[in-house]
Here is the input.
Amino acid sequence: MPDHEIFELGDVVLQSGLTLRQAKLAYKTYGKLASSRDNVIVMPTFYGGQHTDTEPMMRAGRALDPARYFIVVPNMFGNGLSSSPSNAPPPFDRAAFPDVTLYDNVVCQHRLITEHLGIDRILLVVGYSMGAQQAYQWGALYSDMVRAIAPLCGSARTSPHNHLFLEGVKAALLADGAFGWYQTPPIKGLLAFSRVYAGWLLSQDFFREGEYRKMGFASVEDTVRFFEGYFRQRDANDLLAMIWSWQHADISANPQHKGDLAAALGAIRARAIVMPSTTDLYFRVRDNELEVAQMPNAELRPIPSIWGHVAAFGVNPPDDEFIDAALRELLAG
Amino acid sequence: MPDHEIFELGDVVLQSGLTLRQAKLAYKTYGKLASSRDNVIVMPTFYGGQHTDTEPMMRAGRALDPARYFIVVPNMFGNGLSSSPSNAPPPFDRAAFPDVTLYDNVVCQHRLITEHLGIDRILLVVGYSMGAQQAYQWGALYSDMVRAIAPLCGSARTSPHNHLFLEGVKAALLADGAFGWYQTPPIKGLLAFSRVYAGWLLSQDFFREGEYRKMGFASVEDTVRFFEGYFRQRDANDLLAMIWSWQHADISANPQHKGDLAAALGAIRARAIVMPSTTDLYFRVRDNELEVAQMPNAELRPIPSIWGHVAAFGVNPPDDEFIDAALRELLAG
Here is the structure.
């Protein structure tokens, strides 16, 4: 039994000009929609994650409290639950799955929220990593209905170095000769992908200080094995589809903002607290700093952490508290 | 015609307990040995590099001036010129080549300098990256004959995260099914290796600011292609052999210091100016800071650069000037 619902989008013409046929948006809601319909939080998913992976953000005592808010978690295309290479019907499945942008994702999420759930006001769009990129996109496109955004360890546009890091993990996966129209997963490539990725996820200081013990791991290698397991649950084509979305993330690359990033950032009138991690190796404080300077109602509030990109993953209590304090401020309005 | 000389070491018993048979140390000398035999600089090579790659450090006008100094550049085992998987005679060639530590390297280099070249005083051991690791090792083992060391973008012991980054590049190479006892090079793996590596070599800021244009490259991808070309010149087994040396680098892992890093660092009585790059992603300022605190005559002097690990590669004039000023201080004594 799936623990989520599907919103049937029909055929969706994507930015790429290709059609995503019988597009499905998998989502889960947490908590109860108030009769005033004004207690809504939207939390898009991150790279490789599914809605269940966002649940640590809603643990008892945290700011995103389902007892109080109606939290909608739309799954990103390519994540194996919404339309993805691994679940699309042939012949547009697997390596033939069309390229999907985060703009495409957010436009479809907006349809879910408005057409399907009948909601026209959102208290907060919060997201981690690629989820943060979608939060920015929500803010730029639907400023009238979004009161606040909280991008955690993400950026409005993928930076050149971030793009390059993804080139590396992609190359590691594609080096496996089994990759392509495989019947059995290209395990060697998936493991190489994970091992490369593990080097980027956490900071140099994290490993020097042995912080992985706080995650319940005995050694660096033990930590790497965890991430191998995590990514091996995903389909290789799904992982590549999401990388394509990530590499092309740019909230201004759409008909409304025509590539003008300053204009897209300027359009985010929602109050924003932008929270990079000070030691994140690919979503950098400096990138957010440049963005916040162009946003009318934004504050940069770096998470002081040596947990690198994982600071906002919901597994380090001091970081969780830092983030929750900001989210409570935003939710208090 | 080779442009270098070979010192025949005979059979060398390595730290691993294996024998490197008919071991050959390829080296090149630059400049002239003074009759007083006291103008000697030793400059070990870095990962993937050969003596020719150290020549930018000796360009006209730079501190390491062959018109004044006798500069000995010993090639690291595994680099394709000294004994390496690619040039060792069967059956101990290729994937059967024994593991070699940097301690093994430095002990053999010491034999070259003393037995073969008849030198007993060294003004300076300077090295970049794994060359810096060898400079530390020289300082710890042969304090009586080394007056100064200048480790550039390196460390006395490879840090846990540095080890992990190398796990990633290694996994990318090994994901190529052609890897092993190949007759033709595992090109796909070499390219994946290079693409992963490229993400680590330079800083996030370097790419944001488009500094690659100062290297003569038109784009991020153009930069990556350069590094693909660079590493593709090397043999895959050679690259892996040098990674093994790098991952196991630890100046205290030998009979003299028995794993006591503080003791090994304390044994470096030579004057040292330790120069990490402020934005290096794998040889970190913090690692050097911890080391310098345990060295009796050392100064930490970070290179203020956004060129990441490449700051000391000899291709960015402001960084070159910063480094040369320190080298001149050390050479002035």
